[in-house]
């Protein structure tokens, strides 16, 4: 077995998007020597794709806004399944996290009196999203990246080495979280010991030993065919946590963003920001009707306009009018578009029309939505200042994720493991509001970095040890695709690209936006077959920057996560947020306080399990903790009865 | 929908050498060069190395030279080429090749570390920053930069002059200095740091002779030369006479 390079760090952060970088900054500022590992180049993370803004109740645009109102909107958006303490912390701390960015050099768009401008977004009662045109995610990443560089400059001044206390390992992939083998049994059993990974450029393996690991790897969208997500979104962190023994929470909730591009085929799924609607854009069907008025669900009836006239007045006079239904939470709008297309009122390329051209002057469109203007012009030959866009739902975000403690971001069940950002579950309940992701990254990225540093300090004199056996097993697993052609597995070697396409088609067709029992069972069968074939995924060439090899390794993660989604979706017999069952179309108050947890069925096994009925994942139900009374008191009783079960209300 | 077979030449190899490999590959309506590279990976060359991420012109990962011109592969539509034209894809020339279309862009990360960070103003707590939209707009233009490094690749100061890399930060990082210099609340001066002068003395601003190649290749349409580099030269000029600033301001005046 080849000798693997080993290094010691205090905190290892896996992922360098908003959550990972914020965690790394915090850990380093609290004294931990911190390593960040990312699959792409530093500064390219998927966070740059976020367009609309960062939700934070700063009350710059409407003085009535407060953390309580933000909390309320978040719980409504998530249909009350949110881990309420996370939603509370998020709403309370988001403004400080945004203001802090300004002290690191961020330049948000301004109000007339020089404060941070805030824009309207779906599900938010007041204009709440701090933004920079429609490229807010880029500003966030660049600001955090530059803050990290400034910390490295400080370290270089002090030590002569930029990377003495904070280092970014770019273009590296982690394939396993390692365990501390210092003392079998006893208090150290099951504790995190570090990570195993490979450098993409050279293919060399490495081990970073650390008592604390923060997983901040983002989402799972690359398991679906039509998605706004980049190649990095292969559910790595979800799978790493599962394999390390941590459960995943509520994986059935996948957000389909209502507005992705639908044409040309090569750009299908690319995001069209919700800001288009926040700033006045409207949805129309082929009959030129603003159809969203027909899709306001009961729980939101009192809060949305009933006529186009009222909706249009709202932009200038929000005190006396109700909001347009185009600004309903994303799950509602995505389902509505899906229904319109299905009933034959779609656009030529199978979407609906999203129009700003008749709503505001061309120069305003170009100023407020510059990258949308650019994107449609360059990729679809559509001038959005002159004609409507064609849009349809696209897989965008997973609400489910690693089950964490709300205050510390510590993963349940594995000491030393922390999770923040999209990969963590709970915060958004069954559906995330637009703008709540960037704030989530900052609030819980910071908390994860803080508690990881604190935890690591507590183990300073009992550093973990990782035995060679674990490292050898991880090496063998990572090298497997190179010997697929020679091993005695039944059947020919498989092309990883073909397997990936089949997986995406399966999830898209059978566990997509509208779900049916029979289809999900079929999906589980296909996943089981793909799992067997993926064991034979083979690659050509050598280990140096070999995308075929990288994909072959990512398949393990996508298959694990896809099974979690399918199995949990099959189990939850109701429709709520990002989980819509055609055979159980109503929201069921009995499910309101039920979490579904996914764990590995055979933790010590080889993942080769082929029985589709049994699979690799075991599901358990748990009852959620009751919402704290002072938080419940923020809602009217009439609203709560729509969500909560009888016994929850009167306890 | 109409498909056709296109001819491609893709550079394959590594630090020790390589050459153009010929491919014939299917092209469909609306596709971009990156789609074709992905099709090659899936059907003919599974180990073809390429960087990419967002596929929407927002992350700046998929930079390459297409028919010799630095471009983002995800934003270059196949419809801009004649169907019988052979399209070449080669790695960025100014950076050392790692493998195939992937280059070592470490130069850029080293230069980023040499630019002193934003200095927050003393006496203003978080949440107390007040700036007008008009004042932040100039720096905001530069913060649109997606760090694709096409400007760094095309700039003739380093494109064929490896020896200049040590002293020259390149358009992207000179623009970063301009961005901080124009930030309404940057307090570098209070700390005794003159950003304009540092650009000249420490980051090689003088090497730039405003040929505007950087502006031409910028996929974000940032007016790097006119809005960042020339004003930065003007800031430095009260200390040093630079004939190019004089020339630059004349050219600008004429065109506007």
Radius of gyration of chain B, in Å, reads 21 Å
Mean model confidence by pLDDT of chain A: 94
Query: What do the pLDDT scores of chain B average to?
Result: 93
Helix content of chain A: 25-40%
Describe this structure in words.
The complex is a heterodimer of chains A (651) and B (256). Chain A is of the alpha/beta class. Helices cover 35% and strands 15% of the residues of chain A. Chain A is built from 18 helices and 20 strands. In chain A, the strands form 5 sheets. In chain A, strands 7-3-2-11-18 form a 5-stranded parallel β-sheet. In chain A, strand 2, helix 1 (18-29) and strand 3 form a beta-alpha-beta unit. In chain A, helix 2 (67-77) packs across helix 3 (84-103), helix 9 crosses helix 10 (370-380) and helix 13 (496-510) runs parallel beside helix 15 (547-571). The longest helix of chain A is centred in the C-terminal third of the chain and has 25 residues, at 547-571. The model of chain A has no long low-confidence stretch (mean pLDDT 94). Chain B is of the alpha+beta class. In chain B, 36% of the residues lie in helices and 16% in strands. Chain B has 10 helices and 7 strands. Chain B has helices at 33-43, 106-114, 133-143, 150-154, 156-159, 171-182, 195-202, 213-217, 224-237, 243-255, and strands at residues 4-14, 17-27, 63-66, 69-72, 86-90, 97-99, 102-103. In chain B, the strands form 2 sheets. Chain B has a 5-stranded mixed β-sheet with strand order 2-1-5-3-4. Chain B has a two-stranded antiparallel sheet with strand order 6-7. In chain B, a hairpin with a 2-residue loop joins strand 6 and strand 7. The longest helix of chain B is centred in the C-terminal third of the chain and has 14 residues, at 224-237. The mean pLDDT of chain B is 93. The interface between A and B is large, with 71 and 59 residues.
């Amino acid at each position: 077995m080849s000798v693997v390079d080993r290094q010691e760090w205090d905190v290892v952060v896996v992922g360098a998007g908003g959550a990972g970088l914020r965690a790394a900054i915090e850990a380093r500022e609290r004294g931990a020597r911190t390593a960040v590992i990312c699959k792409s180049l530093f500064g390219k993370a998927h966070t740059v794709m976020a367009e609309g803004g960062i939700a934070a109740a700063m009350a710059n645009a409407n003085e009535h806004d407060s953390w309580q109102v933000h909390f309320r909107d978040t719980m409504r958006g998530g249909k009350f399944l949110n881990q309420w303490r996370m939603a509370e912390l998020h709403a309370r701390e988001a403004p400080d996290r945004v203001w802090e960015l300004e002290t690191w050099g961020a330049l948000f768009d301004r109000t007339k009196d020089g404060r941070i401008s805030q824009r309207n977004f779906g599900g938010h009662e007041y204009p709440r999203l701090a933004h920079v045109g429609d490229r807010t995610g880029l500003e966030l990443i660049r600001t955090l990246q530059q803050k990290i560089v400034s910390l490295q400059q400080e370290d270089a001044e002090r030590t002569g080495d930029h990377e003495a206390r904070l280092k970014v390992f770019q273009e590296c992939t982690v394939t396993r979280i390692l365990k501390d083998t210092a003392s079998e049994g006893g208090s150290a059993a099951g504790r995190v010991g570090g990570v195993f990974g490979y450098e993409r450029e050279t293919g060399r393996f490495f081990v970073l030993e650390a008592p604390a690991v923060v997983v901040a790897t983002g989402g799972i969208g690359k398991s679906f065919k039509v998605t706004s997500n980049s190649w990095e979104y292969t559910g790595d962190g979800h799978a790493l946590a599962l394999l390390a023994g941590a459960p995943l929470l509520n994986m059935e909730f996948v957000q389909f963003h209502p507005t992705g591009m639908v044409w040309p085929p090569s750009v299908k799924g690319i995001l069209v920001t919700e800001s288009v609607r926040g700033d006045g854009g409207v949805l129309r069907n082929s009959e030129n009707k603003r159809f969203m008025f027909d899709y306001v669900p009961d729980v939101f009836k009192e809060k949305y306009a009933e006529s186009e006239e009222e909706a249009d007045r709202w932009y200038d006079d929000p005190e006396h009018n109700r909001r347009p239904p185009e600004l309903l939470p994303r799950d509602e709008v995505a389902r509505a578009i899906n229904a319109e297309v299905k009933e034959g009122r779609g656009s030529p390329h199978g979407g609906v029309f999203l129009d700003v051209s008749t709503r505001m002057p061309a120069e305003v469109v170009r100023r407020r939505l510059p990258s949308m203007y650019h994107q449609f012009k360059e990729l679809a030959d559509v001038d959005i200042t002159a004609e409507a866009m064609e849009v349809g739902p696209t897989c965008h975000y997973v609400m489910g994720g690693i089950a964490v403690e709300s205050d510390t971001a510590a993963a349940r069940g594995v000491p030393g493991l922390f999770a923040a950002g999209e990969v963590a579950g709970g915060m958004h309940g069954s559906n995330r509001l637009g703008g709540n992701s960037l704030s989530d990254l900052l609030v819980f990225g910071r908390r994860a970095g803080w508690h990881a540093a604190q935890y690591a300090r507590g183990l300073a004199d009992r550093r973990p040890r990782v035995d060679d056996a674990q490292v050898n097993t991880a090496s063998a697993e990572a090298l497997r695709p190179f010997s697929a052609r020679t091993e005695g597995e039944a059947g020919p070697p498989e092309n990883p690209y073909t397997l990936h396409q089949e997986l995406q088609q399966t999830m898209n067709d059978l566990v997509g936006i509208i779900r049916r029992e029979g289809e999900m069972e079929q999906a589980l069968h296909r996943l089981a077959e793909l799992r067997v074939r993926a064991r034979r995924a083979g690659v050509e060439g050598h280990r140096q920057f070999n995308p075929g090899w990288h994909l072959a390794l990512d398949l393990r993660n996508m298959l694990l996560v896809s099974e979690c989604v399918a199995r949990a979706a099959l189990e939850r017999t109701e429709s709520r947020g990002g989980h819509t069952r055609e055979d159980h179309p109503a929201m069921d108050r009995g499910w309101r306080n039920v979490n579904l947890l996914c764990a590995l069925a055979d933790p010590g096994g080889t993942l080769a399990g082929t029985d589709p009925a049994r699979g690799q994942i075991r599901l358990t139900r748990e009852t959620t903790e009751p919402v704290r009374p002072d938080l419940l008191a923020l809602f009217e009783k009439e609203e709560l009865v729509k969500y909560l079960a009888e016994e929850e209300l009167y306890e | 929908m109409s498909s056709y077979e296109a001819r491609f030449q893709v550079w394959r190899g590594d630090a020790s050498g390589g050459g153009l490999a010929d491919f014939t590959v299917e092209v469909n309506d609306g596709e971009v060069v990156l789609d074709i590279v992905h099709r090659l990976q899936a059907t003919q060359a599974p180990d073809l190395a390429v960087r990419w991420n967002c596929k929407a012109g927002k992350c700046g990962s998929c930079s390459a030279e297409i028919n010799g011109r630095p471009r983002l592969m995800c934003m270059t539509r196949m419809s801009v080429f004649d169907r019988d034209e052979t399209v070449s894809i080669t790695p960025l020339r100014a950076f050392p090749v790692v493998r195939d279309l992937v280059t070592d862009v470490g130069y850029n990360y080293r230069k980023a570390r040499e630019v002193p960070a934003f200095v927050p103003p003393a006496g203003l707590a978080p949440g107390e920053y007040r700036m007008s939209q008009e004042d932040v707009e100039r720096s905001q233009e530069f913060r649109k930069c997606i760090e694709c490094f096409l400007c760094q690749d095309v700039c003739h100061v380093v494109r064929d002059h490896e020896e200049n890399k040590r002293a020259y930060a390149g358009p992207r990082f000179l623009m970063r200095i301009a961005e901080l210099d124009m930030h309404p609340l940057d307090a570098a001066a209070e700390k005794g740091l003159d950003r304009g002068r540092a650009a000249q003395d420490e980051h090689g601003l003088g090497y730039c002779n405003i040929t505007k190649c950087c502006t031409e290749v910028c996929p974000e349409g940032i007016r790097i030369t006119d809005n960042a580099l020339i004003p930065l030269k003007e800031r430095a000029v009260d200390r040093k006479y630079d004939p190019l600033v004089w020339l630059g301001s004349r050219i600008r005046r004429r065109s506007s």
